[in-house]
Write a structure and sequence with these properties.
Blueprint lengths: L1 H31 L4 E15 L7 E15 L21 H29 L1 E4 L3 E4 L4 H4 L7 E5 L2 E2 L3 H12 L4 E8 L3 E8 L12 H5 L1 E3 L8 E4 L4 H5 L6 E5 L2 E2 L3 H9 L6 E7 L2 E7 L2 E5 L2 E5 L2 E3 L3 H7 E4 L3 H27 L11 H13 L2 H19 L7 H14 L5 H31 L1
Antiparallel strand pairs: 1-2, 3-18, 4-9, 5-6, 5-7, 7-8, 10-17, 11-12, 11-13, 13-14, 15-16
């Protein structure tokens, strides 16, 4: 229950920030070109809070449904306008001014993403070094010469400090039928070039498990089964297990490493386990009964204890992407551009059927991502915000009526033919846009439900 509330809370925070920035773009540019703004609303439906600033003609509103927002401007198409204010009506503005106002929303989303990436790239984004584990036989990674222990340094021209960067670069290249060169360090020192041929006949890629589809496994070190922190009142605490304890055997069998210990705990909910452990050089036995926890994967055991990572192991596998002030800004602009193009390419490949629509996520999945990223800390949540802000910017620029891109498309037609697109055409386009957006939302909601129950 707590995780659901956390996800909902951070989802509302994320959507609130993104919508406010998007609508502020429209609002700010409208004010700058002299258009009267009647209302600035974050959310739809019944207003929860509303106010006006001193000498401010705009009403600011926070509404009940936080899944959108709008900026209401003075417009003759929506009501009578006093003669003395006609020059402040949106529909009376020049084509350039109207274009700037409409485009400002998505542009501000991209600006927000750049600002976030700039900040977190100066703070430093931690990740796992891209060290290759076992290579699956008869895979394109095996055909390309990949070996266990390779450290991926570049995918194409993209530098890859962490697995996250490597996976994103591989995803980008996987959308094209091309050969990509991957530079690696062999034995940690010798630079070599491997190849991945995405034009291989019959190649089927699962984007949710791209590395696995390529035949690449992440190097996973053996972590000693040593207890880190113990949750007060949990099963481990009740059994007398303490931080720093090294787990030796369970029911007479060697534990070996943390992965095996986790498997034993998860598969023995409410079963009594005899655990042999070492504490300060002394060996002792404790009785442990893992608590039962219900998850979407089923019921599992849980003891309320974390692992203690050896410092040398952390240093060997941890990597940080960090830049100075100016270099971070340049990297943030490049990252925002690359992510925007990747989003656009993914959408394009969905349209032609090359990428499954299963990759679409609705509000439920986004809320889960918001909660999980917030649980990982500020940098992870900020990165999530930047990514969603880019997605919002790209989606709003698509030439679909009802979206900003649809209005911009009408303005392009107006510029070409020299007159405003007829109201009848716009209304027809609006109905088509509503139908398309409804279809996308239905698919996204279906995917969300399928992930929950699947």
């Amino acid at each position: 229950m707590a995780s659901i509330l956390s996800s909902v809370f951070f989802f509302i925070i994320a959507i609130g920030v993104l919508i406010t920035v998007h609508e502020f773009g429209h609002f700010w540019v409208a004010r700058k070109v002299g258009v009267k703004v009647i209302r600035f609303s974050v959310g739809f439906g019944k207003p929860l809070f509303s106010w006006r600033g001193a000498n401010d003609e705009t009403e600011y509103v926070i509404a009940m449904l936080p899944l959108g927002g709008y900026v209401q401007m003075l417009d003759e198409r929506e009501g009578d306008v006093a003669p003395e204010e006609l020059d402040r009506a949106f529909n009376r503005q020049s084509l350039a001014s109207r274009t700037a106002i409409v485009a400002a929303g998505p542009i501000f989303n991209f600006i927000l993403a750049i600002a976030i990436y700039w900040l977190i790239l100066m703070i430093g984004v931690s990740g796992v070094k891209p060290i290759v584990g076992d290579i699956n036989e008869a895979s394109i990674a095996a055909a390309g010469g990949f070996q266990r222990g390779d450290v991926i340094t570049h995918v194409g021209d993209t530098k890859t400090v962490t697995w996250g960067m490597a996976a994103m670069a591989l995803l980008d290249h996987s959308l094209g039928d091309e050969m990509v060169e991957v530079r690696v360090l062999e034995d940690g020192v010798v630079s070599k070039t491997r190849q991945l041929d995405f034009s291989t006949p019959g190649l089927e890629l699962e984007r949710k498990n791209l590395l696995g589809s390529l035949g690449i496994n992440i190097m996973r070190p053996q972590i000693p089964a040593r207890i880190g922190e113990v949750t007060p009142g949990g099963a481990a605490d009740k059994a007398g297990i303490m931080g720093g304890d090294l787990l030796l055997t369970v029911d007479g069998e060697l534990v070996g490493d943390w992965g095996k210990w986790v498997h034993v705990v998860r598969t023995n909910a409410e079963n009594r386990l005899q655990v042999e452990l070492e504490r300060d050089g002394r060996v002792m036995m404790v009785d442990l009964r893992p608590a039962r926890l219900s998850t979407k994967e089923g019921e599992i055991g849980r003891i309320g204890a974390t692992v203690q990572y050896p410092k040398e192991l952390f240093e060997a596998f941890n990597a940080v992407e960090r830049y100075g002030f100016f270099a971070a800004f340049n990297a943030a602009v490049v990252k925002t551009w690359d992510m925007s193009l990747l989003t656009l390419r993914m959408l394009g490949n969905m349209v032609i059927g090359k990428v499954s629509v299963d990759n679409l996520s609705g509000p439920i999945s986004i809320a889960q991502y918001a909660g999980s990223s917030a649980g990982m800390g500020f940098v992870a949540f900020a990165g999530f915000l930047a990514l969603i802000s880019i997605s919002l910017g790209v989606l709003n620029l698509l030439p679909i009526p009802m979206l900003d891109g649809g209005h911009l498309f009408y303005y392009l037609i107006e510029w070409i033919k020299g007159s405003v697109v007829s109201e009848a055409t716009q209304m027809m386009g609006q109905r088509v846009g509503i139908a398309l957006l409804a279809l996308v939302m239905i698919v996204a909601f279906y995917n969300d439900i399928d992930r929950l129950v699947g």
